[in-house]
Write a structure and sequence with these properties.
By secondary structure, this protein is an alpha+beta fold. The protein is 46% helix and 13% strand.
Length: 223
């Protein structure tokens, strides 16, 4: 039996029209604990390959840590100083088909029986071999990192539906950010690496120009 979700198509489109890449936020307005937990929950519930959840969300509220990140994040200068909540999304590197993390996820999170775990891990091995992921640890990270954008997109949409602004950020020195987070004990000994950042809060001013996008016929082909 289908359950109707009480959000109209018009509300969703309106949220997309409303959202923009907020460069600076109103520092007098803070997202409530309840609202930010709602945003995080949409990230937690986001889809991932085989449900492996190859990510971790680090909420950076410590001013000293934000200051360290600002020095190596040219794309986040305004956001790190003003965002109500600042999130660094980490991607897992320990996602080989036979890794402790993957097997634990299948057994203890998804509660799969042993015969199903054997089948799923075997299928994952075939996929990872075909794509060359087992030959290069960097490719395993990139496989996970691509999936973190699904969670980030869902969190930004959820925020917009609640009237909360956001900005995705890739403009940072990945190695330097990893070094800072490793010093904070946040990377599980190399099993996690920085993937993308996203800031949340309330805009300090309205956008200076209207949202622009390509027309549907320029963007979409049917075949």
């Amino acid at each position: 039996m289908n359950t109707m979700i009480p959000v109209s198509k018009e509300q969703v489109i309106s949220a997309f029209q409303y959202r923009h890449a907020t460069k600076t936020f109103d520092t007098t307005k803070k997202i409530s604990e309840d609202d930010f937990n709602y945003i995080l929950e949409t990230g937690r519930l986001s889809p991932s390959s085989i449900g492996l959840e190859p990510w971790k969300f680090v909420v950076v509220q410590n001013p000293e840590l934000r200051s360290k990140l600002k020095k190596v994040s040219p794309g986040a200068q305004g956001q790190l100083d003003t965002a109500s909540h600042f999130l660094v999304i980490l991607a897992r590197t320990d996602v080989r088909y036979d890794s402790k993390y993957v097997l634990d996820q299948l057994k203890n999170v998804q509660n799969m029986p042993e015969e199903v775990i054997t089948f799923i891990s075997g299928a994952l091995k075939d996929v990872q071999e075909v794509r060359g992921l087992l030959e290069d640890e960097r490719l395993l990270y990139e496989w996970s990192a691509k999936q973190t954008y699904i969670a980030m997109g869902n969190m930004m949409t959820a925020a917009a539906l609640a009237g909360i602004d956001s900005c995705p950020i890739e403009g940072f020195d990945y190695a330097a950010v990893d070094h800072i987070l490793e010093e904070e004990g946040l990377l599980e000994g190399g099993n996690l690496k920085a993937s993308v950042m996203v800031a949340f809060g309330y805009r300090s001013e309205e956008p200076k120009r209207a949202k622009t996008r390509s027309n549907m016929d320029q963007m979409i082909s049917w075949s």
